[in-house]
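Researcher: Here's a chain I'd like modeled. Treat it as a single chain, no partners, no ligands.
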Amino acid sequence: MKLTEREFDIGSLIISEEQQAGIPRSKGVHVSDVIRVLSGWYEAGRSGVEETTGIAISERHRRNSFVEADLNRFAQMGRIWERVLAETVFTRPRYERIGEIEKDGIIGSPDAIDTVDYALAEYKVTYKSAKRPIETDFREWWWQQKSYCHMLGMVRTHLYVFYVCGNYSPPVPCAKEFMALFTPAELKENWAMMLRGRDELLLGSGLEARLKASLEQQRADTIHGFYKGLAKDITKGEE
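Model: Modeled as a single isolated chain. Structure tokens:
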């Protein structure tokens, strides 16, 4: 037998409807961008030891050496799960994909809307254990779902999670559905947090832009001063 091995990059696959339609991601502040900021705040404010693993946060962060291509492959797994569900279980017309939505300068992309139960439908893939508490160990998912519900004027969400390795005892894949009903107070509190994260993100971007402009101006002034001085020297020489 002659065996040949080559890399098959799932990151290049065109999977989602948006990818197939060639619809680019809108420029601006997205829910996922804000959640990354909030997640950073959460980690920075903790005691220094990750509760579920016992690993020091700084050490755990050093171990995470994922690059952009790696993260895209993880995202592709989520798109595959989403596409399978959309074509086999959660089909139109009951489940509609509405595309991007926006509120208060924050852009969101819900997976689907259940038009019968009037609920958000979100599909997730994780390599974490199914034993881990969904309410606390997957907090970013709930920040996202609460945000979408607030943006859409909804209070219900159906979360469908594919656990790639199940509960690791043994590592057998499994899927679970979680149905949540949020209170108006919960959604309001979550959105206030999202707005604070948005403001931090915009402030950081603004400072970066102003700093870049300032440095470019300093460089321009330096070059202008150099040539101005050179011109004077040339003029004196001619005299």
